[in-house]
Amino acid sequence: MEIVETCGKGTLSTGELSTKRSITSIYDDDDDEVVGFEKDAEIMMMKLIRGTKERDVISIYGMPGLGKTTLARKVVLIGKRYLIVLDDIWDVEAWEDLGICFPQGEYGSRVMVATRIEQVAKHLQHHSDPYSLSFLTSAKSWELLEKKVFRGESCPPDLLEAGLQVAQHCKGLPLVVVLIAGMIAKMDKEPSLWLEVASDLSSIGLGEQSMKVIQSSYDHLEDHLKPCLLYMALFPEDHKIPVDDLLKLWMAEEFVLNSETENMEEASRNCLSDLLNRSLVMVSGMRINRDVEYCSLHDVVREFCLRKLTEDKYMQLTVPYNPYQHLHSTESRLCIYIHDDLVEQLDYYEYQLDKIPMLDFKETNSLEFIAHPKLNKWNNLYSNPLDLVVKLRFVRALHLMDVESPNSWATTMQSLTRLRYLALFVKQFELKWISHLHDLQTLHLKSSERIHLNAATLSEMTRLRHVNVDNFSLNLQQLCLESMKTFGHCEIDFLWRLPNLEELGLHVQDVPEFPLFPIPEVHTLFLHIYLPNFCVSFGWERYFVFPSNLRHLNFSGCVLTEEMVLNIARLKNLESLTLKGGIPFGRSQSFYWDVTNVEFRTLKYLTLLTFQMEEWKASEESFPVLEELSFDYSLYLKEIPPSFADIPTLRLIELSKCIQSLGVSAMNIKREIEESTGCDSLQVVIKGTTFVPFDVTLFGF
């Protein structure tokens, strides 16, 4: 349950929320513009909070791209009633299967359904009439287009007339407006070019407009971005794709050139950024530092990509992206995606490629295969998916993290000499079983048993850049792994052998006796403390002199002494700090955090997760550029320091499962900012249950 407070007057309540306050709140999200639907949202809110006490179904229907899903996601529910949102319902049978799962009762609960089909909406009607979502007006279409293209700035006068024509010919479809905005934002700011776009739009019928616009956006992509987009369509519909995995898969498939450059990761991030800026890819999850954690495809964009793959028989010429060379100076490769029809033909013709009808050309030796990111979808054909890929020896990426691989996997792996990405869930593992994979870049292992890694073998795998192994031991030798960029779940003694690490996960289980961080280049650190002795050991803080270039620090399980706080505050580039499960410990008392005389001069994002703190003192100089403050399971802290009202950059306070007085203090800060500046610049978000303060004995020394 989520409550979003954006107006300051009135008392904080978890049971009721005024309609005016809720409607204001759903238009404050910069990532999803909802323009022209203010009246629609107000009507939907009335349907949700008024009317019958029995369970009701509110349907929204309209053609693809009109904004049904966006509107549904932006409308909150309140109190103890439940709200279920069913997106993209195509037939009545789907509702009949799901409807029996939702509790009945006179609590005012609601089920919201989004569908393209009017008859489905009418059939599901209980008490409320289905709501037909209207098209944007020309004025609202232009407002949305201008926001997307000029990022909040006004359109130059010489482009205004052409821009208005483009908006008018989008025919009121928000999806079309957003896609066109992503395309023309990359064009030269010439009225004649914009008028050509408007002319093209005017010739497209309404029913086919979304697909035509996506086709146009696709045609305007640089060659190296096209396979990156099509590859994403292989993930299931509405799947939240982890960005870290996606970028590594792109590198493995050589969509980003597999060269010796140190900036392959940066190049892949640039590719994703381009697709996001063109609105072909959506953000579906953000980290606290506002980096994209998950992304996804709009269902219409995904439908286009699958059509495109089918039309081309799942084959394409892939031009790898090399940021250091001209785009057309790199030789293209002919690739085919492994799909269901191809799997059946491969099996029928016993993997004799020259006999397979869909491969109707002679030069099969030049054909390279791209495996599906979720290869276990073929388990209905193969009890062991490895039986398939072993016959297609030139696959580059293998992700089998969702199914436990059989013990025979090591033998099978010997023929897969081209692998660059390997993610496995195994019972047993020895590094020598994959030592022949000299091109391997990413290794991710999950095992029910402890995995032994040999440093000498690791050093022979010179292109290995990213390692994440859940439970491992390491045979230490005098070796240096210079190519390694990320290493998850690392141990202290191994750190100095990784001089070029950028992202590190470190577990500390003993009181350190020497400085922990000899690597200055680390910019992201996940530090886990598992030592109860830290509660009674002092002086160890001097070994926590963090990497000087650190930008993101996630610190869990620590007794946060004054010296430790100063070590963190000295970091000149630190942007985000997450403190989890720790305790502030001052000279005079514990569970009291006083940073009045400490300045975190670059910190933008601060998150406190189950942080055991009863009282917090800070000055307006403590966090001068803070933008977001988040609490989760803060059961003891009763008040946010009032000085946070004096931070000019603060725009979000988010609380989840915190005591009620903490939420009250957040709303007081919001109210003070509004009264002093006249601006509604701070958003307060309260999620989950707000606990009433209660007596509790905190664990101590």
UniProtKB/TrEMBL annotation:
Transmembrane segments: none annotated. Gene3D superfamilies: Helical domain of apoptotic protease-activating factors (1.10.8.430), P-loop containing nucleotide triphosphate hydrolases (3.40.50.300), Ribonuclease Inhibitor (3.80.10.10), Winged helix-like DNA-binding domain superfamily/Winged helix DNA-binding domain (1.10.10.10). GO terms for biological process: defense response to other organism. It comes from the Eukaryota. InterPro entries: Apaf_helical, Disease_R_plants, LRR_dom_sf, NB-ARC, P-loop_NTPase, WH-like_DNA-bd_sf, WHD_DRP. One of its GO terms (cellular component) is membrane. One of its GO terms (molecular function) is ATP binding. It is found in: Membrane. SUPFAM superfamilies: L domain-like (SSF52058), P-loop containing nucleoside triphosphate hydrolases (SSF52540). Residues 76-154 form the NB-ARC domain. Pfam families: NB-ARC, WHD_DRP. Residues 234-304 form the Disease resistance protein winged helix domain. Keywords: ATP-binding, Coiled coil, Leucine-rich repeat, Membrane, Nucleotide-binding, Plant defense, Repeat. It is a peripheral membrane protein. Belongs to the disease resistance NB-LRR family. This is NB-ARC domain-containing protein.
